[in-house]
Amino acid sequence: MTLPIARTCPFDPPAELRDKPAVSRLRFADGTLGWMVTTHAESRTVLTDPRFSARGELVRSPIRPVMQPAAPGAFAFMDPPDHTHYRKLLTGQFTVRRMRILEPRIEQITKELLDAMTPPTDLVQAFALPLPSRVICELLGVPYTDHEFFEQKSHDMVDPKGSHESRGAAGEELFGYLHQLVQAKRAAPDDALISGLLGQLDDVELTGMAIMLLFAGHETTANMLGLGTFALLQHPEQLAKLHDDVDAAVEELLRYLSIVQYEVNRTALADVELGGEVIKKGETVLVSLPAANRDKFERPDELDVTRSTAGHLAFGHGVHQCLGQQLARIEMRVGFSALFTRFPTLRLAVDPADVPLNVERGIYGVASLPVTW
């Protein structure tokens, strides 16, 4: 199999993924054969077994042909002990308690964005993207006035349609911007996260970490807010239950949509038996989170905001489980609740079939969501 594959339903993983055995062959973008895992149990194994590596120079992608080492500080693409060293510096910044302290500010930003909306509008540009973008900017200490620049460069860095050169150029521009910002913080520190790490990391490490956090902090949640709104509008019986338990609804949307589709890849450091197959040393495995999250649960293809979703893998699993998951949960809980409270008659302004989808990107979602009310 070669990815990406078109979807017949905007909310379901491609049927071809789920028709495969637990472990099946996959051709990566550089032409190399590897593997894809589509079941919950095998996915957890890959994400926890230390014989599988996340190191950038070892891991292939199904949509980008070039492998490269992680930038200093970009610990998501490292293994322990390097990963442990960097991640430990941030653990206290993303605790449940710390995120709850931020909640009133998230509510205020949400209200400001909703106040500014007039029908019809593109919900992605008016709400889904600026909400997490503003929040992560304030958390890191990045000027939101520059949001168009870093949002575009973040997009270009991972655009599967772009060339290796264009992706690299976007990364260099974003690095240059944040490196200058880090140097400015050294001259005049503030109380945001970047300044708080000045004594523990050098400028290059802190810049690499900031790029990773800035990208992860707005790209994923923005796609969940946009695609999640689309899903709720298409399932009015579930939308009617949203306010009964918005936390449960958020977890079910995470499970049901599982937007991280091509970015969870690991490479075997030794021969590993998995699901009846032998993964040879040096072969890369794609963990298909969308498929895995449809494997464990009863009636998995139904959106049911009242179900128990314990054990879903939308934020990954193991030592690389998403560091910012509590922040993402609060942004979604506040965002969905406020949006549908403020605009109870919210509806699509186009035919559902005309909503553009980012099928080829590693993070799946809607490119735009025209709505009115």
UniProtKB/TrEMBL annotation:
It comes from the Bacteria. Gene3D superfamilies: Cytochrome P450. Signal peptide: none annotated. InterPro entries: Cyt_P450, Cyt_P450_B, Cyt_P450_CS, Cyt_P450_sf. It holds the Pfam family p450. Keywords: Heme, Iron, Metal-binding, Monooxygenase, Oxidoreductase. PROSITE patterns: CYTOCHROME_P450 (PS00086). PANTHER family: CYTOCHROME P450 YJIB-RELATED, P450, PUTATIVE (EUROFUNG)-RELATED. Belongs to the cytochrome P450 family. This is Cytochrome P450. It comes from Kibdelosporangium philippinense. The lineage of its organism: Bacteria, Bacillati, Actinomycetota, Actinomycetes, Pseudonocardiales.
